[in-house]
């Protein structure tokens, strides 16, 4: 008989989580995005976590949820404003185990419960298919400069049903 995988759970962000979330952020970029971004682009992108104090302030500025497995953080997602996913990162060791889905489901429900009619995200090229399968529709392509490197992403949007029901 096979052993069941641990199920992810959610909890709110605590400032003490910052160092571990910074390492999840960097590992996710380094190990999951190499098909879509160059090593220089990955390095520039991951550098956002170099200053842990600032990274922690960014996480604390919005609603940030932590996904855990057996009590240990394995992913996180944050909401900017009332209707924009600012960050959603999952540790490479748990990709495909429902962590990203759990985080995204929670943000969609919270956003709709707060009265927003849609949820948007600037999805990396690596994440576009994840969001597309969840019903997000591409709105526009973007280029952003991070530490002298150009990175492309796609603004995507999903219409939400009132009160948190999925459409």
Automatic annotation (TrEMBL):
Any one Pfam family match given in the protein's UniProt record, by short name: Acetyltransf_10
Record keywords: Acyltransferase, Transferase
Superkingdom, taxonomy of origin: Bacteria
An example molecular function term from Gene Ontology annotations: acyltransferase activity
Leading EC class: transferase
Annotated InterPro entries: Acyl_CoA_acyltransferase, GNAT_dom, N-acetyltrans/Recomb-assoc
Positions of the N-acetyltransferase domain: 8-161
E.C. number: 2.3.1.-
PANTHER family: ACETYLTRANSFERASE, ACETYLTRANSFERASE (GNAT) FAMILY PROTEIN
Protein name stated in the entry: GNAT family N-acetyltransferase
């Amino acid at each position: 008989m096979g052993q069941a995988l641990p199920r992810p759970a959610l909890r709110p962000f605590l400032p003490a989580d910052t160092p571990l979330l910074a390492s999840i952020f960097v590992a996710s970029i380094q190990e999951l995005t190499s098909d879509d971004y160059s090593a220089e682009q990955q390095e520039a992108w991951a550098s956002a976590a170099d200053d842990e104090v600032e990274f922690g302030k960014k996480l604390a500025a919005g609603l940030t949820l932590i996904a855990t497995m057996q009590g240990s953080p394995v992913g996180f997602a944050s909401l900017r404003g009332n209707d924009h996913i600012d960050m959603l990162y999952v540790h490479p060791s748990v990709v495909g185990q429902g962590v990203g889905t759990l985080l995204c489901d929670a943000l969609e429900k919270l956003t709709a419960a707060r009265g927003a009619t849609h949820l948007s995200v600037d999805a990396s090229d690596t994440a576009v298919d994840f969001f597309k399968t969840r019903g997000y529709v591409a709105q526009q392509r973007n280029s952003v400069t991070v530490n002298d490197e150009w990175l492309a992403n796609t603004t995507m949007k999903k219409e939400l049903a009132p009160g948190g029901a999925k459409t």
